[in-house]
Design goal:
There is one protein chain. Strand 2 and strand 3 form a beta hairpin. The protein is α/β, with parallel strands linked by helices. The longest helix has 15 residues. The chain has 15 helices and 17 strands. The relative contact order is 0.12. The strands form four sheets. A six-stranded parallel beta sheet has the order 5-6-4-1-7-8, sandwiched between helices. A six-stranded parallel beta sheet has the order 11-10-9-15-16-17, with helices on both faces. It has a three-stranded antiparallel beta sheet with strand order 13-12-14.
Length: 398
Amino acid sequence: MKTLDELLQEGVNGRRVLVRADLNVPLDGKNITDDGRIRAVAPTVKALSDAGARVVVCSHLGRPKGEPDPAFSLAPVAQRLGEVLGREVAFATDTVGTDAESKAVAQGDGDVLLLENLRFNKGETSKDDTQRAEFAGQLAAFGDVYVDDAFGAVHRKHASVFDVAQLLPHYAGWLIAKEVEVLSKLTGKPEQPYVVILGGAKVSDKLAVIDNLLDKVDTLIVGGGMMFTFLAAQGYEVGSSLLEKDQIETCKTYLERAAKLGVELLLPVDTTTAAEFAADAEPLTVGVDAIPADRMGLDIGPESAKTFADRIAGAKTVFWNGPMGVFEFPDYAAGTKTVAQALVDSEAFSVVGGGDSAAAVRTLGLPEDGFGHISTGGGASLEYLEGKTLPGLDALEN
């Protein structure tokens, strides 16, 4: 695929460049609680602006239902993007309407304009090819060329991700190029020992990545809510912990397959439990063979965390996706923090697979530069590692 470097070499002074960014940041009202995605795409936007391009940025935020919703406005993002770039970012109050058109026409060389939320328009996410193509045509009218730097959206066949690339000369931004470079290392021949750590709530969310990576790793570590389905597959009672009963047999299959492959599938030996799902619930750490019937596991226990950290310390390559517990509750954050700190302390090439794992790194105050790479796309990074074809990448490669 062609990259931003090639576009900059061609020259962009005075040219209109439509940039698809992933500015889907968490908001508390109008306050941005994590600006990681804004900072991640800023270098691409700044490089284009510095080179004299007339930059029009578009993004989605949240899941509005195809019509304007003030709760999902990108207005606060425009302000923060301007602060990160160190220059004014104009904001259009619509996506492809009169305000967007007039502000795009008024742009000078180096100016940056952010359009309102793409998902305020039904055509963005439509499964009807004609409706989606019509909206893509309206977006494409803002650019002479198209740069996609929204890795967190490349697994979606949306108008701004897939269809616009059919209409304009297209290039991958620096963020997408970096994501593909890093993730391809994990699916190719990563340096051994290779350790994969999977957490989060559900086994069903991670089945395909387990299936695709099991014969490539030396150790597969399982924590978070998904660990209880694996423990149930081993015959343990898990109390009121999160359990996907319909996946128990699948977990048994993976345990058997790992044993045949000589892969260590490492499960927790202890868990920190609570009587209810609440931040102020009194914690009690027990062995996984002694979980009370009326309690639920909300974190891995300290012995498990130490074992996981030891495996990380001996690794050369590590991929981590999914917290080890409910890190948002201080009493149940220790497992996630221990694993994350072990990655910071490790000499391994470490990749944090976006989503809740990236949020945990920032919430727990760990240094982002302590990791080899923090992905901006949780779902996209998992689908890449599952070996799926991602529509946004496919469009850039063709």
